[in-house]
Write a structure and sequence with these properties.
Blueprint lengths: L25 E4 L6 H8 L10 E4 L6 H11 L5 H11 L5 H12 L3 E5 L2 E6 L10 E5 L11 E6 H8 L3 H12 L8 E14 L3 H10 L1 H10 L8 E5 H8 L3 H9 L13 E14 L5 H35 L5 H6 L3 H16 L19 H17 L7 H8 L9 H4 L14 H16 L5
Parallel strand pairs: 1-2
Antiparallel strand pairs: 3-4, 4-5, 6-9, 7-8, 7-9
Helix pairs in contact: 2-11, 3-11, 7-8, 8-9, 14-17, 15-17
């Protein structure tokens, strides 16, 4: 967005960052901005030369702009099931507790040991330690943290498809977990390709010989190869393998990179080493108790809901402020400057930016419970039933149906394909999103219980 020689006006979207002109005399918004921050940034293009400039905005008093912009806040949310899917990928079971138990049981056979306010009960066989060992650990209130954490990866594409949210939203959720005020649940690392593919051009014997030379390949063959089917290639998650073996994943990756230069006696052909499957990478513990799982689930879900509520509240505050200084027609605003309205708006903006971030959007009492009329209720339920009947082959949830009926795209239901389904796409923009999610969830539950539509 820039002025050409002799040009008096520029029409652009929200991307006005490239506009470098000091004597812009007016900025006109055709619709409401997303936030106070966006509004201030966009009108800040006017009057940079110190001379008075005018800023106008067309706003819908009935709130259609508000409904349209609210979709952006709802598009970033997930339900508790989505949160649980993410946590299952992050906090995977590990063997740290079992290894500690086995070590203690071997050292304290047939004995009861009290140590650090924790009770260890171990009963073993007479001759050696077997898998039948019965071990009971009762932790005290201080609860010892046994697992130091492991490198964990999970493919981006797979998790995006499972949660049906963009990868940047998942990154934000992982950041919430890392920056939790009462406990940092993980440490977010740089994304990497977590799957290693090894192909030996010398055939299965070449792979067998390579395993004898490289401990990493020997372990990969042991855990991830089908030993009954001779093959010359293997594919495995090398980060998971490193964690399983207690190795440094970066050293493992360096050694895998060097395999193509390794000379195997009796084989002239080389080894192909490829890395694929771009994945999220975190350092997280794996021995969470049921109470800890509930705790982190509640924290993350409530954090997501609080962020959505804060965005909606700020959006409503902006709409309320702009409506309070708006005129009934554009003719009134075009004649002369109303300095009282101008001063009031500037005070509102100043007060907004003087608040602490945690105060903005913390009060959700302004949100009145949505109560649709009987007529609206019947229409919405009819459309939900019709949608389920026509798309019963899809993994539908209440949130999926609500997004489609309010025109909110997602990775699994993109606008370029579902936007053509005119019968349902953006069908119910005038109803509350959360109410629509709950209504669709109730209809789906009745459908699965055998309720005939």
């Amino acid at each position: 967005s820039s002025f050409r020689p002799g040009q008096k006006a520029v029409v652009s979207t929200q991307s006005t960052g490239g506009l470098d002109k000091a004597n812009v005399r007016s900025v006109i918004h055709y619709s409401m901005p997303k936030s106070f921050e966006n509004y201030v940034q966009e009108i800040g293009r006017a009057g940079r030369d110190g001379i008075m400039a005018h800023c106008h905005i067309f706003i819908d008093e009935l709130g259609e702009d508000l409904s349209e912009l609210s979709k952006h806040a709802h598009s970033n949310t997930v339900d508790r099931y989505g949160v649980q899917q993410l946590l299952l990928s992050v906090f995977k079971p590990c063997a740290c507790v079992a290894l500690l138990q086995r070590s203690d049981a071997c050292a304290k056979k047939d004995s009861l040991v009290l140590e650090d306010s924790s009770t260890y009960l171990a009963s073993t066989a007479d001759d050696d330690f077997s898998d039948d060992v019965d071990i009971l650990i009762n932790m005290d209130e201080r609860k010892l943290v046994i697992c130091p954490g492991h490198s964990v990866t999970f493919p981006m594409a797979e998790l995006v498809n499972t949660m049906d949210v963009p990868e940047e939203n998942i990154t934000t959720m992982l950041t919430y977990l890392e920056m939790c005020p009462f406990r940092s649940w993980l440490k977010l690392q740089q994304p990497l390709k977590s799957t290693c593919h090894i192909q030996c051009y010398g055939g299965p014997a070449h792979l067998t010989a390579l395993a004898q030379e490289a401990a990493t390949i020997l372990a990969a063959v042991r855990f991830y190869a089908d030993l009954e089917q001779p093959t010359n290639e293997i594919q495995f998650p090398y980060i998971e393998l490193a964690s399983r073996m207690g190795w440094d994943p970066y050293i493992v990756k360096r050694e895998l990179h060097e395999l193509d230069q390794l000379v195997i006696p009796g084989f002239k052909s080389s080894v192909l080493v490829e890395f694929k499957d771009l994945s999220f990478h975190v350092h997280a513990p794996g021995n969470l108790t049921d109470e800890e799982v509930d705790e982190v689930t509640d924290y993350l879900y409530n954090r997501i809901v609080a962020q959505k509520n804060a965005e909606l509240r700020r959006l409503c505050e902006l709409h309320k402020t702009l409506v309070s200084v708006a005129t009934s027609s554009h003719y009134e605003a075009a004649c002369e400057v109303d300095f009282d309205r101008d001063r009031f708006l500037k005070e509102k903006i100043t007060n907004y930016f003087s608040e602490r971030p945690e105060e903005q959007g913390s009060d959700w009492l302004w949100r009145k419970p949505y109560q649709p009329s009987t007529h609206i209720l019947a229409i919405v339920e009819r459309d939900i039933r019709s949608f389920i009947n026509k798309h019963s082959n899809l993994p539908l949830t209440g949130r999926v149906i609500a997004r489609i009926m309010q025109g909110i795209p997602s990775p699994n239901y993109p606008a370029y394909s579902w936007g053509r389904v005119r019968e349902y796409w953006r069908k119910h923009l005038d109803v509350d999103f959360e109410w629509l999610v709950q209504s669709a969830s109730n209809v789906i539950a009745r459908y699965r219980l055998g309720d005939s539509f």
